[in-house]
Amino acid sequence: MVRATPPLPLHEIEVPVPNGLSPFAIGTFDEIGSFTRARFPHRHDFYEILFLTGGGGVHVVDFEPYEIEPNSVYVLAPGQVHFWKDSELITGRVLVFAEEFLLVHPGGLLPAPGGSPLLRLDDAQAAQVEEVLDDIDREYRSRDPGYATMLQAHLHILLVRIQRLRQAHPRVPASSSIVWRFTRLVTKHVLAERSVTAYAERVGVTAGHLTDLVRAALGTTPGAVIRAALALEAKRLLAQTELSVAQIAHALGFEDPSYFGRFFKREAGASPGDFRRDIREKYQLAHDL
After folding, report:
1. 150 φ, ψ (degrees, to nearest 5)
2. Contact 241, 197 (CB under 8 A)
3. 173: phi then psi, degrees, rounded to nearest 5
4. Where are the domain boundaries for CATH 2.60.120.280 in the chain?
5. DSSP code, position 87
């Protein structure tokens, strides 16, 4: 039975749509809007690429803290929860787009859900990224004939460039198109479907082959990816809602709250109650509810 989880704050794109295509925008943090520096946890219905050139504080993505530093690139997927803590003078560029705006299927070009959203660059690498962002920005503002197609082409180049830079960092694994599709499906449908076989059928391979691909790309198993996605949804609800543990267990499809408690402690290393208390205390989230 599918459960409907209570909605968390969702930011939708409120920008011009090029030539009637899917939403796309680029600009400074000030130009894109207040949500770009939001200090409260929220999630997006679009992809967001952040290129930071200055500022201080902490950027928290799915409850993992990242120190704000220049020459940092974040690639955030739809549904990820993030916010800024103790941040000041954040500068750089923000690029937002819907998946449908891409020229090709994003598998292989975007990091698999669950991977690190952060890529730190040296000055030469940052210059490579900034060069493409400059091209995108000029095309976006000029609105010359055919600019939507040009934006799609430049976005494709940017994603390839970021992917190459990610592959240059051994700690950032690359993912195949099939693995990306699998992990993306899990993030979208984990509340309704938790069968490895079912996901394998959706991406057109056997369960055994999917297991081999996920192990090679991510160093884990499809089942572990599914469990991690479910635990992440639980963390989001524990941190950002006043639902009881039993209500959250029910919302996530667990008939037995005690089983949910054991599952969560195994995945998160703490009981649901302890996690809620500790995460709210760490990030002062209770004041935002």
Report:
1. -65, -40
2. no
3. -70, 145
4. 10-167
5. E
Residue 124 tokens, joined: 């030469």
Closest by Cα among 87, 90, 7, 98 to 48: 98
Contacts of 178 (CB under 8 A, 6+ apart): 107, 203, 204, 205, 210, 213
Cβ-based neighbour number of residue 138 at 10 Å:
14
pTM (global) more than 0.70:
yes
Residue 110: beta bridge partners? 107
What is residue 113's DSSP assignment?
T
pLDDT higher than threshold 70 for residue 287: no
Topology (CATH) of 177-288: Arc Repressor Mutant, subunit A (1.10.10)
**What's the sign of the alpha-carbon dihedral 218, 78, 123, 165?**
positive
| 51, β-bridge pairs | 73, 93
Paired tokens of 266: 């195994």
Residue 86 and residue 111 in contact, taking contact as beta carbons nearer than 8 Å: no
Dist CA 7 CA 43 (whole Å) = 10
Task: For CATH 1.10.10.60, list the domain ranges present in the chain.
Answer: 177-288
Tens of pLDDT along 200-233?
999 999 999 999 999 988 889 999 999 999 999 9
Q: Report how far residue 232's alpha carbon sits from residue 82's, in angstroms, rounded to the nearest whole number.
A: 13
Bridge partners of 42, per DSSP, are: 82
Cα within 13 Å of Cα(175), Cβ side: 25
Q: How many CB atoms lie within 10 A of CB 92?
A: 21
Q: 287: helix, coil or strand?
A: helix
Residue that is written with structure tokens 């803590």 in the block: 85
Quote the CATH superfamily of domain 10-167.
Regulatory protein AraC (2.60.120.280)
Q: Are 43 and 79 in contact (CB under 8 A)?
A: yes
